[in-house]
Hints:
By secondary structure, this protein is of the alpha/beta class. The chain has 2 domains: about 1-40, no CATH class; about 45-230, Rossmann fold (3-Layer(aba) Sandwich). Helix content is about 35%, strand content about 15%. The strands form 2 sheets. It has a 5-stranded parallel β-sheet, with helices on both faces. Helix 9 links the parallel strand 6 and strand 7 (about 220-230).
Amino acid sequence: MKLLRGYLADFVSLLFPELCPACQTSLVVNEYIICSDCRYNLPYTNFHLQADNIVAQQFYGKIKVEAAYALYYFTKGGKVQNLMHHFKYKGMQQIGNLLGHIAGTQLAQNPVFNTVDLIIPVPLHKKRFQERGYNQSARFAEGLAEKLNAMVEDHNLLRTIATATQTHKSRFARFENMQDVFMIKHPEKLINKHVLLVDDIITTGSTLEACGMELLKIPGLTLSIATIAYAQ
């Protein structure tokens, strides 16, 4: 019976092959979500090995960040963009958990990230959440939490205003667009905690900066940042 099920699964995969969301090639046996070639050859940043990396530099003189990181470089039309499109808009939530595991394995090598107490995903406004059905940053946070032995705090940082898209705005316009957008429901839970704030993609860093400004009002809070990708 087990052998028959295996043959049936192989037959179904021939008719309806699972495709790697990054490169659209068919997955083979023992490949999970992302093909082996993409898993090893996507543009990793290795920022977990560089304290003074490009993501950290985004926040110099703006907010105090203990450490900052992105897993991949993001380029328009590239494989990481394909991956993120399937993750955010095609309902492939499992991509977030997998990328969280990959990123968490890297960050566990860095002593700064090993002191994280809580992981907080950048929140979606409730209207956007209802449209999408999930918060992609929260799925990434869940994968990270498993590797860093930290807790996900998913309902404390709130987005109170549904902002317009940031895509075509300048850095200053993005920053202005994010003013007074976030609030913290239970700040007492974050006192003296090392918080890892996570998002999917960082470009100018204005969203993370706005979240960070609210979080750093809390006494004794230490802030670090991690994202899936850095848009060059």
